[in-house]
Amino acid sequence: MNRQVLAVLLLISCSTTAFAGEQFDIEVTDRAVVQRCVTKGLPRSIAVGMPGGFNYLFDPVRCRLVSVWFGDFLDFRPEATGRGGQPLVPLGVRRNLGTAEVPIRIGAEDRIPEAVEFAGYRIEPATGIPAFLFAVDGVPIEQRVLSFGPGQVTIELAFPTPGTQPRLYCMEMTAVEQCELSDRLEQPAAGFVRIPATESWAQIRLQLKPTKESFVRQQPTTNGRLLYAVHCMSCHTLDGGKRIGPSFADLWTAPRIVSRNGQLESMVADEAYVRESILKPQAAIVKGYENANRMVDITQTLNEQQIEALVAFLKGLKPSGS
Questions:
Q1: How far, rounded to the nearest angstrom, does the alpha carbon of residue 200 sit from its chain's CA centroid?
Q2: What is this structure's pTM?
Q3: Which domains does the chain show, CATH number per domain?
């Protein structure tokens, strides 16, 4: 099996994801974690969490390092509790190192690449650290991103085939305090590193400026209407329409025939019934929905404040005087 086929298979295969407690944080332990995801402003990205608290985002479209952060890895809650395709939240202060364009140029710094081909990534078996594989204007490249200390970022580039033109690597320098290069590399201008055609390996070591910005975790929404739209709307309508579960349109106005412990009983919806239906959806199943798909355990995705907000929203649907 050749390297490109292996890379594609690795790209298709799923990363092992571990969650911390009930927070839906993706944990990084003694191996790197590679997570394909959507992040804010980047519809296609690959997030990498490294042991020790170093993390970064890679853009497979432009084959570029986008940003880095130190601390915890990713909050998976938007994806786990929504309909998919929701931006995941990096759990730290992101430092931008990426340019808007493809960072590697062949021949000259102002020569925008005409062809960029992403070929996946190769995983180092012992550590899980990925090497990203791609080609720029026909030149194959392997890239790793590492960190050997606080605020330190190392970019390693390997060129498996000999070349005839120099390669240039461009990056955003706003967050960089110091840049050190491996032998025979040059920095002709700020933000550009020149790699001679004779070099098969290059290392760029960056020391980032201290930042006074601190990470503040975004609190989960307690907007009841939004919670309904995200968690309930696909199964329960507000207008009497039929879906997987009973509509909320007549929740407060019509008696409900429910099956409880295998016995049918008539009841009028009240707040206790609504709360029980959210927390224990199989306790009292509305007649006619006994064979419907089982409702998921919402307590695994919503906290107590969110459940209170959802109950309050449903109470707000109650007609005045009823």
A1: 33
A2: 0.72
A3: 3-208 (no CATH), 224-315 (1.10.760.10)
Q: Is 105 exposed, middle or buried (0-12, 13-18, 19+ CB in 10 A)?
A: buried
Closest CA to 91 of 36, 148, 20: 20
Q: Which residues pair with 144 in a beta bridge?
A: 156
Nearest-angstrom CA–CA distance, 94 and 114:
29
Grouping H, G, I as helix, E, B as strand and the rest as coil, residue 176 is: strand
CA–CA separation, 204 vs 145, rounded Å? 10
Digitized pLDDT (tens) for each residue of the chain, 322 residues in all: 444 434 433 333 334 456 554 468 999 999 999 999 999 889 899 999 999 999 999 999 999 999 999 999 999 888 876 666 789 999 999 999 999 999 999 999 899 999 999 999 999 999 999 999 999 999 999 999 999 999 999 999 999 999 899 999 999 999 999 999 999 999 999 899 999 999 999 999 999 999 999 998 877 778 888 888 878 888 899 888 888 888 888 788 778 899 988 889 888 888 888 888 888 988 888 888 888 888 878 877 788 888 898 989 888 888 765 5
Q: For residues 185 and 306, what is the distance between their CA atoms, to the nearest angstrom?
A: 55
Q: How far apart are CA 28 and CA 53, in angstroms?
A: 8
Amino acid at 97: L
